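Forwarding the complex inputs:
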Amino acid sequence: MTTEQVPGRTVPTLEAVAARAGVSRATVSRVVNGSPKVTAEVVAAVERAIADLNYVPNRAARSLASRRTQVVALVVPESTAKVFADPFFASIVQGVALSLADTEYTLNMVISSETNPDKTRRYLMGGNVDGALVVSHHSGDHSYAQLGTSLPLVFGGRPVSESEHASYYVDVDNVAGARTATEHLIERGRRNIALITGPQDMPAGLDRYTGWKQAMDAAGLDSTQVAYGDFSPASGLEAMRRLLAAGRPIDGLFAANDQMAAGAYSAIHEAGLSIPGDVAVVGYDDDSFGLMSTPPLTTVHQPSIGLGEAMARILVRRLAGEPVDRVTLLPTELVIRQST
Amino acid sequence: MTTEQVPGRTVPTLEAVAARAGVSRATVSRVVNGSPKVTAEVVAAVERAIADLNYVPNRAARSLASRRTQVVALVVPESTAKVFADPFFASIVQGVALSLADTEYTLNMVISSETNPDKTRRYLMGGNVDGALVVSHHSGDHSYAQLGTSLPLVFGGRPVSESEHASYYVDVDNVAGARTATEHLIERGRRNIALITGPQDMPAGLDRYTGWKQAMDAAGLDSTQVAYGDFSPASGLEAMRRLLAAGRPIDGLFAANDQMAAGAYSAIHEAGLSIPGDVAVVGYDDDSFGLMSTPPLTTVHQPSIGLGEAMARILVRRLAGEPVDRVTLLPTELVIRQST
DNA sequence: CTGAAAGCGCTAACAC
DNA sequence: GTGTTAGCGCTTTCAG
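Prediction (whole assembly, four chains):
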């Protein structure tokens, strides 16, 4: 299949550098790897030779000899890739890439086919990478967790079941974010605050429910007006209709994501109610749905780039043998716009 | 910096497979690489051994020996990465990743720092990759083109100046897309069609102007109502205000992207005009701005995932030594919604 | 502190 | 067809 392609090493080898600097290859290797026990003069000579020759170490050779690849994989389940346009996910990739750019590590994007997950597993276990980052979006799927015992792994998003293989993961503090959002509604004087959340088998759906309930309970408010959606605008529309149809007073709404909030807007409007006059609304995610809706949606902003950066940073630390916490929770920020 | 991490090869070596299958290492290598001249029986024996041992070839060793890396880089200028949330770009990445998943190649994401572009150049030229894909979004920046002489490169987006190093690139057919958009406006009976386009030093801005002009000229319509923006909503708002302030009749508008169209909506509304009643509007990009505006925007959809797929496919073909066209133009599709 | 020597796991002529 | 023999370019004991 692939032939013809033999670039024919255009860069000089370590050997050439050694010759030019008048030292052994071992010494050049030491300099390149920053070994402390090399005379300053020798270091200078070698570095000059490296610069003169424009030498670049060969990754494959280095990897083969050191039994380290200097590669970390970013594993993206195919289903997540489908929603790649999801800006939240795109930002994570960006954060990972930026964070890794400052290290010796190289980023390998792997789309793991759901029909053939073994291909990815074999790739990861085949000594091709030093570690891996696994993102699974809202699903909390940690099916790769078992690999964690033999390969350093860091997950994006907490696992559905906490006990699951005791993975390392970084996530946004969904509970706190939802609590803050709800408290904001309460501060605005709302008392009958409904919730539209996501499936309770997804961490995001569950945690945002928890945060809302914490705030409601703390304020001594009734926390029974709850409807469930699937994070889509359509489901938000339906959920709000059900809430409204129940006939109980509602002057505030917290939706577990902006898309469902956008759907809820429609239901609120079709019921002849105004936002925020009759119903104040807070969303979650701070995506374009919230930004472009009328009125602009007050929502919870998540540090998506920061999430990616944190994932990468934590993996690199683990690879360096430094101790790191298994769980890293990133703070959210309430963005107040005109819907509250 | 990075120590401690020595996974300690958990997978068996080719040697082990050879021993188990009772053949030489060379033969195992042949089987693994699908050489045609190996007895069916031997192939079977080797494959069984491979399966039994759960053998996975070591990439570094293979790469070192074959002088081929089986890696292709996806180079993203840092400035583009900033707008990573740009769904168009995210889709390209997705397309590339998906397309590469079916090949022997692995995807290396490289964020090229603009402050230190040499780092990326050295990485690319250091024999770390077999080829590279370079995306530069709307800018048409082909500053890596020079590398194309020594490393197979495929660009996303056409270069600003066509002659520039005669790069290989794939792009969306902006001219045709803009022409179709404008023709649609004409078919709807509009005659005074204005244009808001982007900077003329960006291919996207220039080509969309060209397509609009072609359609206008072909229909014998006046093509002088033109304003320029920078692809942002704010610039679209300003541009439309200027157009309207000029006092000449306008019953149609083609905006070179949806974001500027969204801005133009505001200007049209503030002038007390209706869409599409008074002014029919067509955008370009088919992003969420157009989808969420009121009324939903008729726009030109670009095959963004297809663009990424095409880039990867073309690079892989080049690496395989197959002849491929330097230029690949992907067709666009007009999405008719309620603004026309 | 520096050099010599022995591989890392695999591929690619070259023989047989 | 299959085995033998050299390395690919680098790191890493082990001497000195």
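Residues 23-27, 30, 37-39, 42, 61, 63-67 of chain A lie near DNA strand C (CB under 10 Å from a C1').
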